[in-house]
Design brief:
The complex is a heterodimer. By secondary structure, chain A is an alpha+beta fold. In chain A, about 30% of the residues lie in helices and about 50% in strands. The radius of gyration of chain A is 34 Å and the shape is rod-shaped. Classes of the chains: A alpha+beta, B alpha/beta.
Chain lengths: ~190, ~280
């Protein structure tokens, strides 16, 4: 009766072991720049002149490798596992067992994929930002909305100064669709 | 036996803390010390900072308190960026402190839904003069305004808060405010008014969104959500110097000015300044 129970239990575990999905391990690989989303902007100075420059920003991606064992080899592994108690009682059993386990190990199979990381990064070369609409906010809270950079990305500070009074600084923003980006503050 | 159980429990809790503490390598390198006015924090809600951290991987250490303390923390180098409802003095601007005003919000006057125990507040509008009379102590009973025979309990935020100073400047035109209860944090007036029938107070309108048991009054038939409503305060980012491009400070400002930030402003009845 007791032996029957043990036999049933072994059989049950064997079925569970063989029916189980192949073990898979997910390994994170290299991070890299994905597709370009938009540009990041900044101001650069050259001989008291301010230029708008832009650089693409991308969504960061990461390689994801799924490693799993072949299922056929897992059957050998199950038999080896079941034979372990008997073999371990034999002085040479350990060596036999080692060989059986090596055979059961199987070859790794790898599946490569990429996942998107919820981060954005700078990518690509920096270039001038011509024809961009700027918003200027003075230290006294005046707002000027009709400033556009020229073909080299140059900002007409003299034109802005003519439209404002005695100010401490200008906050410079760029308007893109429904977002506004703070670029820099120019002290006068 | 008890000793062993205690040791086991202690080790278990310690290991639980160790294994469940969020180890997020991308957040480890970048952090930002953010000092924010309590009323602005309440108006925007906690979600915006959670989303900011999630999207940019920047860890935010937040201080919430009165605007002037938030500004002090920036000046004393305890914070990297402040978000306040007071204007920055020119002396600080000349020293390199940059004020970036970006949002306007109305200062709403609100009452408990009841003007007395079990008596609903019949008012939905006050004239500007009536508001000034209530907060200067000249009007002290709801009966004089058509309500129950119940004392008007005036609750105000601390005198150093942006809400108090802006209300005194714009609504009261610098007249002294007489009050029954004063609370240290501006947003605490909401809870006080919710608990006390017959009470009245003021607060930035965005912070009142979704609050129950209160009634927001119109002033001279203008709702705080109307652009023409005359009593507004301005929210500004303040930073120490022009930050280098792509720093976490700049990222935070741009997050506030992004489509996401502008959408929150509009949803809460606030008015973007720069668009």
């Amino acid at each position: 009766m007791k032996i029957n129970k043990i036999r049933s239990l072994f059989l049950f575990f064997l079925i569970i072991f063989c029916a189980a999905n192949a073990e898979a391990e997910i390994v994170k690989g290299e991070k890299f720049a994905g597709e370009e989303i938009t540009y990041a902007y900044k101001l650069e100075t050259n001989a008291d002149q301010y230029f708008l420059v832009k650089q693409p920003i991308c969504r960061e991606m990461q390689e994801e490798i799924e490693i799993y064992k072949e299922k056929k080899k897992r059957v050998i592994g199950a038999v080896a596992a079941l034979a372990t108690p008997a073999l371990m009682s034999n002085p040479y059993g350990y060596f036999v067992l080692q060989k059986a386990w090596l055979a059961a190990a199987g070859k790794d199979k790898k599946h490569y994929g990429n996942v998107q990381i919820d981060r954005i990064i700078l990518c690509g070369e920096q270039e001038p930002g011509p024809g961009e609409k700027l918003i200027i906010q003075t230290s006294g809270m005046k707002i000027i909305r009709d400033i556009v950079t020229d073909s080299n990305g140059l900002i007409d500070l003299k034109g802005i100064a003519q439209k404002t009074g005695d100010e401490i600084y200008f906050n410079i923003f760029i308007k893109k669709e429904d977002s506004i980006f703070y670029l820099s503050t120019i002290y006068l | 036996m008890k000793k062993y159980i205690s040791v086991f429990l202690f080790s278990f809790l310690l290991s639980l803390l160790f294994f469940t503490f969020p180890v997020l390598p991308s957040y480890a390198n970048t952090s930002i010390r953010f000092a924010c006015s309590s009323q602005i924090a309440k108006a925007y809600g906690k979600e915006i900072l959670i989303d900011f951290r999630k999207f940019f991987g920047i860890y935010v250490q937040v201080y919430n308190g009165p605007s002037h303390k938030a500004l002090d923390r920036l000046v004393n180098d305890v914070s990297d960026i402040a978000l306040i409802s007071l204007r920055v003095p020119d002396e600080l601007k000349k020293k390199g402190y940059i004020e970036i005003p970006f949002c306007q919000d109305s200062i709403a006057v609100f009452t408990n839904v009841d003007s007395g125990p079990g008596t609903p507040c019949p008012l939905s509008n006050l004239s500007l003069n009536q508001v000034r009379d209530i907060f200067s102590g000249r009007l002290s009973n709801w009966k004089e305004l058509g309500g129950a025979d119940q004392k008007i309990e005036v609750i105000v935020p601390g005198e150093e808060t942006g809400a108090y100073q802006n209300f005194r400047m714009t609504v009261m035109q610098m007249e002294k405010i007489e009050y029954d209860i004063i609370v240290d944090r501006s947003v605490a007036v909401i809870e006080e008014v919710q608990e006390k029938p017959g009470s009245i107070s003021f607060m930035t309108n965005g912070a009142l969104t979704g609050e129950e048991s209160i009634k927001i009054l119109t002033i001279d038939e203008l709702s705080p959500k109307d652009k023409a409503y005359p009593f507004k305060q301005i929210y500004s980012f303040v930073i120490k110097r022009d930050p280098a491009p792509y720093t976490s400070v700049k990222t935070m400002i741009n997050f506030g000015l992004s489509h996401y930030g502008l959408t929150i402003m509009r949803e809460k009845g606030m008015f973007p300044i720069l668009e």
